[in-house]
Design brief:
mainly beta, 14-stranded antiparallel β-sheet, globular, DUF6250
């Protein structure tokens, strides 16, 4: 399997700062997408990106926010793979996602350093696939007041991670519900009376090496 960090035409991001910005991907108009990284262990975290693929290798919590609020009805689609080849931070765990995220107490969302508990005050939807050393997959709603409501939980093998499997993941936010589909099958969903307020999307993980590609955002 090719290590993106060893290929040509790739940007490497390795900094001692807990927060920094980077460009990766383009929107439907061809405009570059800007991202904001929040990393718990900066000196032990590496991101590598080329035109099509983003790869991260992290010893601790890592959140990568799309620096663009999404509103209305939309679909976020991408391929995501957990890499396990015996490298120091390879661990089959924590394919996590935030979406429709906002901070009720601060218009600037990007103030954290990658620790999961620091996101408790936000309002958002959270999916954690293969968490807790690949023993649970959970769907939560954070209500913006510190409560993390558990909406669904799986522990069966067919709802956990497989190593080096390229999962097609789709998040949909429509007029009546939000849902997460994995390889074309709905895993999680939550109904509501109106779409959520404009909010941010993020890739999230803890201690793992993962690859993301074919990222798109489109209206529903």
């Amino acid at each position: 399997m090719t290590d993106l960090s060893q290929t040509d035409k790739v940007e490497l991001y390795h900094t001692s700062r807990h927060q920094y910005g980077l460009n990766w991907g383009v929107d439907q108009q061809g405009t570059p997408l800007h991202w904001r990284a929040e990393q718990e262990k900066p000196t032990q975290t590496l991101l590598a990106a080329d035109a099509d693929t983003l790869q991260f290798d992290s010893a601790g919590g890592l959140t990568l926010w799309l620096d663009k609020p999404l509103s209305g009805t939309y679909r976020i689609s991408f391929i995501r793979e957990v890499l396990t080849e015996g490298r120091p931070f390879d661990r089959l765990s924590d394919v996590n996602l935030f979406w429709a995220a906002r901070d009720p107490a601060n218009p600037d969302l990007f103030t954290r350093q990658g620790e999961l508990s620091s996101y408790d005050p936000l309002e958002l939807y959270y999916a954690g696939i293969g968490g807790n050393w690949n023993t649970t997959s959970r769907f939560r709603y954070y209500d913006g007041q510190g409560e993390r409501q558990l909406l669904a939980e799986y522990t069966s093998a067919d709802r956990l991670l497989s190593a080096n499997h390229a999962y097609r993941m789709e998040i949909e936010v429509d007029l009546t519900a939000t849902r997460l589909l994995i390889d074309g099958e709905e895993w999680f969903s939550k109904d509501y009376q109106a779409p959520p307020a404009p909010g941010y999307f993020a890739f999230r993980t803890v201690w793992s090496r993962q690859r993301i590609s074919d990222f798109t955002i489109s209206p529903l």
